[in-house]
Sequence to fold (1252 residues):
Amino acid sequence: MSTWSVARWLQLIQHWQLRKRCLHSSAMVSPWRFLSFLGFAAAALAKSSTGNSVLVVLDPGSSRDNFSRFFDGLEARGYELTFRTPKDAHPAVIEHDHPEYSHVILFAPESKTYSSDITPQSLVTLLSKNTNLLIAVSPKATPLTSLAAEFSLILPPPGTPLVSHFPERDTPATVIPVDVSPSNPVLSGSLPPVWFSGVPFAFNSNPHIVPILNAPPQSFAADSDADSGADAVVEAADKGGEGLWAGSSLGLVAGFQTLGGGRATWVGGVDLFSDEYAQKPTLDGNKPGNEQFAADVAAWTFQETGVLRVDGSTHHHVNETTPRDRYTINDRVTYTLRVSKYNPTSAEWEPYSGIDGMQLEFTMLDPHIRTALQPTPGVPGEYSLTFRVPDRHGVFKFNVDYKRKGWSYLQSTTVVPVVPPRHDEYPRFLSPAWPYYAGAISTSAAFLAFCALWLAGDSAEPKKSKSTKSD
Amino acid sequence: MPLAYSLPTDLSPATVVNASSLLRIVALALISGAAIASRLFAVINFESVIHEFDPWFNYRATRVLASEGFYEFWNWFDPTAWYPLGRVVGGTIYPGLMATSGVIYSILHGLNLPVDIRNICVMLAPGFSALTAWSTYMFTKEMKDESAGLLAAAFIGIVPGYISRSVAGSYDNEAIAIFLLMFTFFLWIKALKTGSAFFGTLAALFYFYMVAAWGGYAFITNMIPLHAFTLILMGRFSSRLYVAYSSWYAIGTLASMQVPFVGFQPVRTSEHMAALGVFGLLQIIAFAELVRAHVSSKQFQRLLYASVIGMGILGGLAIVGLTYKGWIAPWTGRFYSLWDTGYAKKYIPIIASVSEHQPTAWPSFFMDLQLLIFVFPAGVILCFRELRDEHVFVIIYAVVASYFAGVMVRLMLTLTPCVCVCAAVAFSSVLDTYINPVEPDAVEEEAETAGDGAVSASSTAVSTSSGSATKKGKKAAPAAQPGPLGGLVSTVSAVVSTKKGEKSRGIFGGDTRLAVLLNALGMLLFFVLHCTYVTSSAYSSPSVVLASTNPDGSQHIIDDFREAYYWLRQNTPETAVVMSWWDYGYQIAGMADRPTLVDNNTWNNTHIATVGKAMSSSEEVAYPILRKHDVDYVLVIFGGLLGYSGDDINKFLWMVRIAQGVWPDEIQEPNYFTAKGEYKVDDGASNTMKNSLMYKMSYYRFAELFGGNQAVDRVRGQQMPKIGPTLDYLDEAFTSENWIVRIYQVKKEDPLGRDLRTANAFEQGKRRKRSKPVARRRAIV
Fold:
């Protein structure tokens, strides 16, 4: 109960602050520009569900212009970008334990040193405080490489980029066209292949990883694209292929949904976002999917798409409408959960009934009931279920735990005690007990009859009764 | 007729009677006052606070009763106890204590006396001790006379064996149960003496009150049948016995079944079968007596006896058969442990782990009863001299209770009243004999004329006032000269066994009298001093608040428990679940008002074993258990800094044993000892010990406290390693002033899905080993 309500309050407060900020900015706008601004304002309303301030950390070697399509696209969608280099102390990402930005883009894969506010630890802290991260790595060993391990991503040794000799093309072996899976929940529909160059990573088993782009099956990580001198490959080949970074199970772009709701996306090569790759025609001469892919990845990372939340849950006795603070065993109880989905185009939370396969558990230590929680027909965003409370008293929890790749996690826990019937809720008369009732009644009747006979009948010997009394 | 000293002769019998009864009332009032006052040490030394562990639950339940009414209390389901199982409180407690306080509370409030419910609870036990003194007086009066009754009342009023369970603040079932025990016994004796169904019914009603108040009612349930059975065996079956027993058993059993916690036990469990069996036997015997009165044929009577015995055997076999069939529950483990003292240790560590279930040490008999324990056998022997029905009762009571008191420390409580009664009988006999002014004639008297009340007649209540006499003595005292010869004879024979025809013996000189009397009074005086000393020093500590002495002699209060519990209350959400060993469950619920996993109502062994397992496993194993039970805080008691020996490390082996009982594959007791079999916490401790959650929580950051010096655990007297244990899955949340209570917060799962040890290592900047992709294919060999 408290879990969802706290989250909801936070969201309400955030919403309210957001509104206030919008009102503030629109108040500053002079009236004659107001109309023209209005169109912009609709677009400028936060696209993300968590805020629109973005800090971009760029390598000193690269400039904004290299990624102008990507960044302009973000700005057009309403994000406020702030740029700095890794070594700048200001603006800091986190001050007084408070994250200063809603999202951080780390496009500094070559930097070996950062100013003190960006460390692997502080990035994890940011993430746990619901700041989203978009992190690019490169074949170079940087502090970020060690951070990747915390996300269950296994990077190859330094200096081993992804290499693929197929399909035949005129680009270097490290610049690879990668087919995009059409069914990925993060991406919008099917995209043309994207250009990629950088490192792949293997996944440890971690359920929070959302693979977005996988390596082509023929590709592998090697320290040289020539046949000779590729030590990593040779070494792995000696071991029968063990430990080789190769094949389609490698990831190139992977999202990470944390338990707290923050999102991080790891990209094997920053060039994926560059203008150069966005314009480089694919092998069949078409426009590559890079631009759209980058926009989709950013939208997912910045919590525009695939964002769900629990608006609230209630429970009540089947014949009532208000929740009770306890239920009796074998009661019939209705549980209702309301879910909203964030709509980035209108920047509104809208009731969402599209979830399939959500389950409700009624748990005390172990789930006593686990059953599908179906959308209520006719009421958008509402999922409800009526069930019989088990014949077992204790402190139960209504538990909804919906975790799907690409979607934010839905969790709702409501604690409710289930009690045995009150002393006056048991049946008053039991039919199996009739022998006992009959016994009690017949004994009472016999006693009465005996008394009556004793008092009325025995008048023949008054003396004797007197004498017994005096005894 | 010579007298040792002169008595006033000009008093009218009525004056003597009135004066003596006034004196008795005054004496009883003073005894009540002393009984109450001596129990107030705890309030004066500390404050009006509920003591120990169980009283905290009783207090909490009473508050519910007082604020929400009886029916809400009856149906109270406590979701915060035994989380998440919950506890059906109404059906699992003896409500007598709470109901008593509730009634007193509503009466006082009805009189517009707004007394706080806490003060009622604190003062209930002293108040009832006064009633206990009165009921003991009544009981002993049935045994001997009023003077013995007054002595018994004085004894029970201040004897430490009873005070230990009834000081102010010790708000436990025993507080009222001893009163009920003695009063039920008194009514039973009264019913047996008079053969009155009225007193039998009264006994049944108080038996019901007792059943509603204390689990120890089984003692009455078995004592009265045992008494009745013994009387039958002694050939003392009478219609008085039949009426008394039948009315007590029928009404008492029906009434006791109205208590939800007892329910159908009186007809379903072995503990109650003796009462049922004796009831049946009485019916058979009564029927046989009836038939015998109407039938004259000797052979028919023989046949009848055969059939009676056959029916008895059949009835016994039926009970055995029903037990085998499972209709009658066999003896419970707690009961077995009364016969086989090693039973609990082997099979039910939970029972054995309670200190008050340990066998009694010899010194505690002296500590609790002082001189009474020496006079006690004399009183029992004096009972043999007369051996009326009620004396048989006291003898049985003495034998049974002595055995039980030897088996379990806590059953000292049931022995104490019996000891007081017997000691009072013995002591008053001595006083009677030596105060009695009548000196024997030199000539042998042969008149054995006086009736049965001889002893009481001659002795009188001289101990209370010179020359004043009791009910029967009123004839004797003023007319002392004519000669209560029988009284003399029996008195003398009570002390020195005389043989007729020999030269008469007796007490002639005043010096002899004085020597014995002064000696006896001195003993009584030392008894009072001992009681006061033991009460003030040993039995008046609330154990919630500890006291120590400063170097300058002033008292230093150690209030760590309440400090920690109030910290929990003020700083954690109301739904935060606190895990601790079960000893502290009631206190946490009462003082911190937070849900607990286990508490002193040890009804679920598995749940306790779960907590034991969590405490005795490593962090990695314990963490899923903690998460499964929604534990937010873990509380441990640590005495190593202060030298408080009742801490969790000393109880730790019981946790291990109880957990081992349920998970023998995962927890093994020998792993917690060193290779030499020692229980150590220092460098030499075994690895399992060092990795256990309990060890880590107790000694976390303990070494830092000594600033580089050698850290010493003052309870175990062992030197702790310089580098203490580290915690990955818990955070230290609170440690009380003297480190007695330490509270740890259970960390939430890592947002990145790592295990918390890894997350912690990362947080501290440790590099992790590089890993390689998992091989998906196996090389073909």
Notes: Chain B touches chain A at residues 71, 74-75, 77, 79, 83-86, 88, 90-91, 573, 575, 628-629, 749-754, 758-759, 762-763, 765, 767-768, 770-777, 779 (CB under 8 Å). Residues 559-761 of chain B form a domain with the Rossmann fold fold (CATH 3.40.50.12610). The first strand of chain B starts at residue 77 and ends at 78.
